[in-house]
Amino acid sequence: MKEQNYHPGFAGKLAAAFIQSKLTIITIVASLLLGILAIVLLPREEEPQIKVPMIDVMVAMPGATPREIEERVSIPMEKLLYELPGVEYIYSTSMPGKSLLVARFYVGEDLETSIVRLNQKLQTNFDRIPHGVSRPLIKPHTIDDVPVLALTFHSTKYDHFTLRRLAAQVDDEVKNIFAVAQTTLIGGMRRQVRVLFDPLKLAARNLSVTELIPRLQQANRQQLSGTLESLNHEIRLQTGTFLTSAKEIGRIVVGVYGGNPVYLNEVATVVDGPEEPASYVLFGHGKGTPEEAAVTLSVAKRPGANAVHVVETVLEKVESLKGTLIPDDVSVSITRDYGETAAEKSNELLLHMGIAVFGVALLILFFLGWRESTIVMLAIPSTLSLTLLLFYLYGYTLNRITLFALIFSIGILVDDAIVVVENIVRHLRLPGSKNKTMIQVALEAVAEVGNPTILATWAVIAAILPMAFVGGLMGPYMRPIPIGASAAMIISMFIAFTVTPWAAVHILKSHCSPSECAVEPEDDEDHAPDDFFTRLYHRIMEPLLARGSARFLFFFIVIGLLLASCSMVYLGMVKVKMLPFDNKSEFQVILNMPEGSTLEQTSRAALEMAEVVGAEPEVVNYQIYSGTAAPFNFNGLVRHYFMRGGPTMADIQVNLLPKSKRDLQSHDIAKRVRPAIAKIAEKYNAAVAVAEVPPGPPVLQTLVAEIYGPTDKARIALAREVKKIFATTDGVVDIDWYREEERDKTIITVDKEKAALHGISEGTITRTVQIALQGLSIDLFHQPRDKEEIPLVLQLPRAKRARVEQLLNLQIRPDMNPQAPLVPLRELVHVTQKPVEQPIYRKNLKRVIYVTGDVAGAAESPVYPILAMNKKLAKLDGIKYGGLQHKITIYNLNQPFTETEPAMKWDGEWHITLEVFRDLGLAFCVVMILIYMLMVGWFKNYITPLVVMAAIPFSLIGILPAHWALGAFFTATSMIGFMAGAGIVVRNSIILVDFIELRRSHGLSLADAVVEAGAVRFRPMLLTALAVVVGASVILADPIFQGLAISLMFGEIASLLISRMAVPVFYYMVNKGKEEA
Description:
Among the domains are: 1-26 and 368-520, Up-down Bundle (Multidrug efflux transporter AcrB transmembrane fold), CATH 1.20.1640.10; 54-141, Multidrug efflux transporter AcrB pore domain (Alpha-Beta Plaits), CATH 3.30.70; 191-271 and 744-835, Multidrug efflux transporter AcrB TolC docking domain, DN and DC subdomains (2-Layer Sandwich), CATH 3.30.2090.10; 532-573 and 941-1077, Multidrug efflux transporter AcrB transmembrane domain (Multidrug efflux transporter AcrB transmembrane fold), CATH 1.20.1640; 583-693, Multidrug efflux transporter AcrB pore domain (Alpha-Beta Plaits, 2-Layer Sandwich), CATH 3.30.70.1430. It has 34 helices and 32 strands. By secondary structure, the chain is an alpha+beta fold. Strands 5, 6, 13, 14, 15, 16, 17, 18 and 19 form a 9-stranded antiparallel β-sheet that branches. A 6-stranded antiparallel β-sheet has the order 4-1-3-2-28-29, with helices on one face. Strands 21-30-20-32-31 form a 5-stranded mixed β-sheet.
């Protein structure tokens, strides 16, 4: 058979332009240098930058009940802010005296634009603010607020007060570092000058506590009063001096009694020292050693800054302060270092990327030889370098997602180079190449596979790119994969058509010229002798084409295997989950004690839990934050953990050994300590949650049930029932709900008539009680050397404000008559008891009660507990909960339209899971349509594309059994692997079908062309599949991307083995009638 005329096509023309050009070597070198530059310039972070603006709006209305706060503040603000473009969710919490509203915008919305819009909306409606309501306080939050470094100062010698002052000085030094943003000191006791008044001594000298305030303020004044001119000189005149010591404060005259001055130290004790403890921070080493007083300094970085460089600079600065600002007997422990974890992850992944490249090179070396392997090796680093440059220009950072995108791409991007190199080598060995030059052979080989390679490349891109349009918080996590892989595919195609032919000519010509490599016989210029595997393939295919019964049996087996594989999901053999648990070096224990618990009682419970955690051999250290919040991560940012505080709350930050030094994953350790921690919480009647760093977008909790209903009573009853269902469902742990425990509060009611008769206003009475209990910061104690401000606080001693009866002995002076006698508080008020008002929660303009939980046990996916709970929820009677219908509607993605019927919506991880798999499913449909349209345009008919695409489901025969065999969840990354694999499967099918049609155009019969295509194109298909397997194998051990690796590896193996026979047979069956006709 004689060769047809040479048609270069786009690929052939491109190869011809570069095959002898001097620019080719410059292109290679330039791409490598640009890649190195990109690696140096790309900021390194562990997690991708996610733009999801969250803005807190806080408003105070002192004295108002939650119901009034809701009506006067929360609802009007919700309606206003819900009008803003870009707002996705509005959450509000109405509490006694204040409202907190959180506006969460859609992912990708610009933070500055969102702040400006929100601020303008509120400012233009300030005229609607009710009397007694404060102006809104606006606080925006982004992922850059998350501290990248936490340093804990602890010592057995120094107390909380001393450590705080020391840490404040270090904080001041750290703030001077470029690229450091917000720094926060957590724990310790600030310096405070407290004036602890004695009510009896004040009364004995005819003084009230409110009379001390102006005297103290006036005594602490210093200002420039003007200038004097004398002898041609101007002299500045200062009046007064600031108070500088506790002794000086004690000598202030606060009144006159019996003709003698009354000094402050006669009626009060002045203490210059630590404030009253509102929180305790302790550092624990575990293993039975006592905890130490501690203060933590958290450091956040500026947006776009390199986390690794910022952390290294801060640590270098702190190290230089040791021995000067930091005494030798104060230890500084790094309790968070996202710079180190980012560097460790990026270095690990860069190593994996190198291993994958080396593995692919060895693969080519084994199948084609070292020269061919060298040619492919030139293509990989050039492609990866240019892709890294694209990441830099696009504004991405070097994080685990972008690096996984590159590793994921390695197995795919070598396809073009492999196909081109393999075809050049094959053409060199054809008898018809004997009288051609090396350049001619290379150009003909590129031209032959050029058009189907271009089509196949676009098919792979069409399979991957739609994943970039996944919505929600999961979108930014996924987006670098389709964008990076698509860019790599385009670049690799360009490299394959330009650099690869040039390299083949220069590397192969000295070893194997066409005249030397062409083999006999010469009677057929287009064929080389068959090997053993080709002859075996002929023996299998010929009966399949010849006998219909053989084809029926073949497809019966294949379809049976496919159905059996899919049934693994239905039977629960393969578990479905959005993302598996990650292996981090930290987790938190979140403790909520019953309302009314003291700080000391909360600390006691936290210490017991810390003892359990500290006994674990994998725990390096832990920090207990009682009454305050631990440094928050992205999970804590979304859950607003940074706002946790008060005597009933505590966090335990647990730091683990590095992953390389422990056998168990962090999830296994958290799961192991959970039962003992839960037992302690039960003893204290507390709610506890073990909060792990989520592998993907954070949510309020893994399981979240939003309860809606027509009345408060109906909502509470339904929420209580749902909470019981949570508690009786296997695998559901850490159960809690957003409702405080019922308790009473003491109300001091002013007798308005008596107060008026005595000339005392309610404001004076309220202020007196507030001073006694909370204390009043009346001024600043001026000490310029101290890094933190020192308030001058007036307060009743702690021992004298333990009971209501003690407060009733306070004496109050009539407002307008300083000469009038003092009046005891007990004569002006009545003391009653009343239940504490519950906070009111709202979401998107509707009242809601949240019931939350986590999953643990055999099936650690929210899918299966939710399916089990849905069966129990279906048995509830809606009429019992204020509805008109028996059925309680359960929503999954949308809120109820109205609040007239009791309803429940599943949120948390379930919501994101449904969103992600819905979007991926839609993306997959788009993928199928795009691929079909591409191939219809190429093959000029509607049937052949269906033949090509028929092999896509066959990859599931490998994917699902592999997940079951390896005990892995089928996750979102598994779905990504399946979709990407679909592109590769289609690519191989295109090359098969195109070769069949090429051979038929050369005059071969349909049967011969079908068999020859499977035989000749098997080697590049095999190399492509093995390259994908080798490239993906390095991420098989990663807990997050294991599913992607399994889908790619085993999907490729299954589709290769099946599609090599199925696609040619399909093609034969479709076209058999046409040939006979």
